[in-house]
């Protein structure tokens, strides 16, 4: 099942690229524009490696937490993951804004760490770019939170880290291109049909996983209740 989750995480990152552009496109453009042409690729690559490293750290923590919950017999975590994907698909397609409220959960942490990122601007070397990416990886994002639920459901710190790492790699093509073609990409990702296509694909994936999870919960329910009593 974990191999399927890894593939799904990569596809979610790839399909959610337009959302990543909206969330991180500004900082990526700033890093690229302020860098000499010869330094542009190393700096934007380092920034994204830092960002993905933070995703993997969060995924490892989430997977470790899932392991302590011991809910293998009652897969409520996978149900939550499927529901979060459905909400993310609706959000990306522009059919619901409910998931934006979930992003508010991380605002407090972001207010504490975002000043550290501002001190690293303008980025002049790879170490600064890497550190900036690691900080920016904690930016409150519904897409990241949705994928983190899969890390939580993996019941493993290693699997959780791998899921978030593959998700980060999925976002990489759009994010690297942002540093070079930000103006062209801006017009592309603002196309309503493209946003809806990406949203619908994530929505369908969430519905598919929901259809797999619900039947498995029916026989598990009596067992779960008996253990509770």
Automatic annotation (TrEMBL):
Keywords: Membrane, Transmembrane, Transmembrane helix. It comes from the Bacteria. InterPro entries: UreH-like_TM_dom. Pfam families: DsbD_2 (PF13386). The chain crosses the membrane at residues 6-31, 52-69, 75-94, 129-148, 160-181, 202-221. Residues 8-204 form the Urease accessory protein UreH-like transmembrane domain. PANTHER family: HEAVY METAL TRANSPORTER, HEAVY METAL TRANSPORTER-RELATED. This is Urease accessory protein UreH-like transmembrane domain-containing protein. It comes from Pokkaliibacter plantistimulans.
